[in-house]
Specification:
With about 220 residues, this protein is mainly alpha-helical. The protein is about 60% helix and about 10% strand.
Amino acid sequence: NGEKIKRVAHLIKRFKEEEERKKGKRAEIVVVISALSKVTDMLLENANRVATEGNPDKAKEFVEELRTKHEVAASEAIDNENELRTAKDELKERIAEVEKAIIGICLLGELSPRSLDYISSFGERLAAPILAGTLRSIGIEAVHLTGGEAGIITNEEYGNAQLAWGVEREIRERIAPLLENKIPVVTGFIGETKKKTITTLGRGGSDYTATIIGAAID
């Protein structure tokens, strides 16, 4: 996974340089990222399992597996020591959130559609800091954003959220200023409600995210 992320970062760099050579000006690029391979399925399967079994030890085992997978990917992808440290600090925060949510589901023995969206969003939310750090480590200014931070505001139809009216303007206002000197790395698949609750856009949601952003920023 780490080698794939590194390859993606170099593809982005090459595309950026080619565009700038052709057009003679700074290329304005937004990147939309999915979860690492099989992570979303892992999150969904384990959330359902711990809700049914109520076994905190199994929940913690899964969290450790998730932590290891992403820390190894970050170490493989990011060559710069400072950027690696930054990425691992961010991963640590996100993993702590995952653990809290998974243990909560385990103890309650209940998994609501809202909780399921929250849990499944972590695939993208863990991957984005790794790619942003990899880009910075090869000399490209990058910043990672969740779908909600990028302006993808939705209704509360968890699992298959629909865009709020006029969302294109919100996305444009949040992303356009960043394009002057950075590449935004946006989590695909997820948005948030006006109340800041995380939602997901359904399967194929990362492609949908890219389409929404592309339309919004022309």
